[in-house]
Design brief:
56 residues, elongated
Length: 56
């Protein structure tokens, strides 16, 4: 998977979570949950990508 695809995947996950919460009027909860999840996914993914590049 390319880097851009990984970013899109993380953002897509955040948007899906946000949409699910918005339909139930939980926009504040969605922002507290979806954005950190997407950011954490991105940071961990980038860390693993850099690490695997160094090793390989």
């Amino acid at each position: 998977m390319e880097n851009n695809e990984r970013i899109k995947s993380g953002i897509g996950t955040a948007l899906l979570l946000t949409a699910a919460f918005v339909t139930n009027n939980y926009i504040t909860i969605a922002m507290y949950v979806a954005l950190p999840v997407a950011l954490g996914y991105f940071v961990i993914d980038e860390g693993l990508r850099v690490r695997s590049k160094r090793l390989g």
